[in-house]
Design a protein that fits this description.
The chain is an alpha+beta fold and 201 residues long. It is built from four helices and twelve strands, in the order H-E-E-E-E-E-H-E-E-E-E-E-E-H-H-E. It has a single domain, classed as OB fold (Dihydrolipoamide Acetyltransferase, E2P) (Beta Barrel), CATH 2.40.50.
Length: 201
């Protein structure tokens, strides 16, 4: 494993320690749930471990991402991941959210649903999150409107709130396949260059 990958693994571990909700105590003997935590537009989110196949570093200084002509701004391009070309999607633009952190914090979550795959760019990784199952609640009125169609529920634990986001539901959204942009949108869009380094979560 190269030094860049080792550094990224260390960053993931640091993020987990910094942002993780407290692990359920052994004495409680309550069933626990864990997922990959991340942030979008300043909102803490978590997805099941099985939904995220890869976690990748995003670096806007290089150009290993191939841009695609005539697509909407949320399609940043395609990248070769383990021999498979997949689209890289800016979730902030797709969902109509504004990033709250510098681009240097961004990560890419690779998600597959059958034959459909995508790399979702998120604001930052928050590492592995642990919750007691009983802390899960159905989604309420406090769920941000843009996220509501994809939110399964919310975990409130240790003074923190994490919405469970179903990333595969985004891959099943008909809007996800409407990638062609109008001529007016083409004039407003610009190419974005990125460097992607694979790391398993």
């Amino acid at each position: 494993m190269n030094s860049a990958a080792l550094r990224l693994l260390q960053n993931i571990q640091d993020a987990t320690e910094l942002n993780a909700a407290p692990m359920p105590s052994k004495e409680s003997a309550e069933p626990a749930w864990q997922g990959i935590g991340f942030q979008l537009g300043g909102v803490r989110l978590v997805s099941p471990m099985g939904e995220v196949g890869e976690l990748m570093h995003l670096n806007s200084q290089s150009a290993r991402l191939a841009p695609l002509p005539g697509v909407k701004p949320w399609v940043l391009g395609i990248s070769n991941i383990r021999g498979e070309l997949i689209p890289i999607i800016d979730l902030h633009t797709f969902l109509g959210l504004a990033p709250t952190l510098p681009a240097s914090h961004a990560r890419v979550l690779v998600v597959k649903d059958g034959d459909v795959a995508a790399g979702f760019v998120v604001e930052q990784s928050l590492g592995i999150q642990h919750f007691v199952l009983s802390s899960f609640e159905p989604p309420g009125s406090d769920v941000p409107q843009m996220l509501a169609p994809y939110v399964k529920g919310v975990y409130r634990h240790g003074g923190r709130v994490f919405y469970e986001l179903q990333l595969k539901a985004i891959l099943q959204d008909p809007r996800f396949f409407e990638v062609a942009q109008t001529p007016a949108q083409e004039d407003e869009s610009s190419d974005m260059q990125m460097d992607l380094h694979e790391v398993r979560p």
